[in-house]
């Protein structure tokens, strides 16, 4: 009985899916279906992981006076709670946000809000990234933490003003560019015993991902889930590759990537969860809990020697096999340099 019911439901679901998408060529239809299932699997795995490791997801904030942090995003969602944690730890925080005025209330209401600064940053634009980096380094020539937090998920196909697919540009490429521009300041602040840290806020949603090296903008066939997975995978691969590169240059900068958990934020505005807010309230983490593994990546002393680590719930997370492939990492680094006009031989030496 159970088998018959399952087969009937599966057949019905597959037929409905086919009717809704019958204009697509079969190969695209099948790959879209696979991405949908794989992403649901990754999300369910993430939820289970959050529940299993609920007690591990905690951190004691140190006193980090005189330390400087730069965070992208921060006016809402997980970023706001990371900012709150950093300020509590007496860190001076610089937010890169599209509307700096939005930080005013945070400055007035948060503990140590006087240590919060905000500059304009639009990650859809390389020009804006450059202007932001210039403003920051002019006032703050040394930086201890860079938290590449801002992100977008799903939505229609869109190219940025630089001609890059928007999820790849916002989540990975323009953070890669920002990291390059802030590296001199990060290197200046880093010490052997206390290196500076770059934290890429990635996602368990990287799991079904691969890098479309021959068609990074996915022009041939756009699947928004595959594009999100590609961008989040790229952040993990970049943390691993840059950690090795900067180690080889004896720089005191470490790189980490973090899955914050499945968190109740506006990131889901392009998904069905947006219509089911109560479901998010019941099953998802709070933004405060989502900020915890990011603060862990900034402050935990035991991971100093473990640069390149992928963290989930304040322990080592499981990233997909693709992210560990060194040839793929190098190829992604080269293509990211090319798309941002950086000479790969000079990366980290500025
Ligand atoms: N919420 C989750 O369940 C979840 C799970 C895994 C990973 N993440 C990652 O966590 C990070 C934070 O997401 P969140 O859940 O707080 O979502 P959110 O939508 O609440 O916050 C995203 C932030 O990014 C900023 N942003 C978006 N586009 C930008 C642009 N062009 N320029 C500058 N800033 C821009 C937004 O203004 C906002 O502050 C993202 O990188 C996301 O991929 C979230």
Automatic annotation (TrEMBL):
GO terms for molecular function: oxidoreductase activity. Keywords: Oxidoreductase. SUPFAM superfamilies: NAD(P)-binding Rossmann-fold domains. Gene3D superfamilies: NAD(P)-binding Rossmann-like Domain. The keyword Amino-acid biosynthesis does not apply. Belongs to the short-chain dehydrogenases/reductases (SDR) family. This is Carbonyl reductase.
């Amino acid at each position: 009985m159970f088998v018959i019911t399952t087969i009937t439901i599966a057949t019905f679901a597959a037929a409905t899916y086919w009717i809704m998408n019958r204009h697509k060529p079969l190969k695209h239809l099948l790959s879209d279906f696979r991405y949908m299932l794989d992403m649901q699997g990754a999300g369910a795995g993430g939820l289970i992981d959050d529940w299993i490791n609920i007690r591990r997801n905690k951190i004691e904030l140190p006193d980090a006076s005189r330390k400087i942090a730069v965070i992208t995003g921060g006016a809402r969602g997980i970023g706001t709670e990371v900012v709150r944690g950093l300020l509590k730890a007496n860190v001076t925080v610089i937010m890169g946000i599209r509307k700096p005025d939005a930080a005013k209330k945070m400055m007035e209401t948060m503990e140590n809000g006087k240590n919060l600064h905000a500059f304009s940053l639009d990650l859809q634009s390389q020009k804006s990234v450059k202007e932001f980096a210039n403003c920051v380094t002019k006032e703050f020539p040394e930086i201890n933490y860079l938290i590449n937090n801002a992100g977008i998920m799903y939505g229609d196909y869109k190219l940025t003003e630089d001609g890059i697919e928007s999820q790849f540009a916002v989540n990975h490429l323009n953070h890669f560019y920002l990291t390059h521009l802030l590296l001199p300041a990060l290197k200046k602040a880093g010490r052997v015993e206390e290196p500076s840290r770059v934290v890429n806020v990635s996602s368990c949603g990287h799991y079904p991902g691969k890098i479309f090296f021959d068609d990074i903008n996915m022009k041939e066939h756009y699947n928004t889930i595959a594009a999100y997975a590609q961008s989040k995978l790229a952040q993990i691969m970049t943390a691993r590759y840059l950690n090795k590169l900067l180690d080889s240059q004896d720089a005191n900068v470490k790189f980490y990537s973090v899955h914050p958990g499945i968190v109740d934020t506006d990131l889901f505005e392009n998904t069905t969860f947006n219509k089911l807010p109560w479901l998010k309230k019941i099953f998802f983490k709070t933004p405060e809990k989502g900020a915890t593994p990011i603060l862990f990546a900034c402050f935990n002393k035991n991971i100093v020697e473990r640069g390149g680590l992928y963290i989930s719930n304040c322990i080592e997370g499981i990233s997909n096999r693709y992210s560990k492939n060194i040839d793929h990492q190098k190829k992604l680094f080269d293509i990211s340099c090319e798309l941002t006009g950086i000479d790969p031989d000079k990366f980290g030496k500025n």
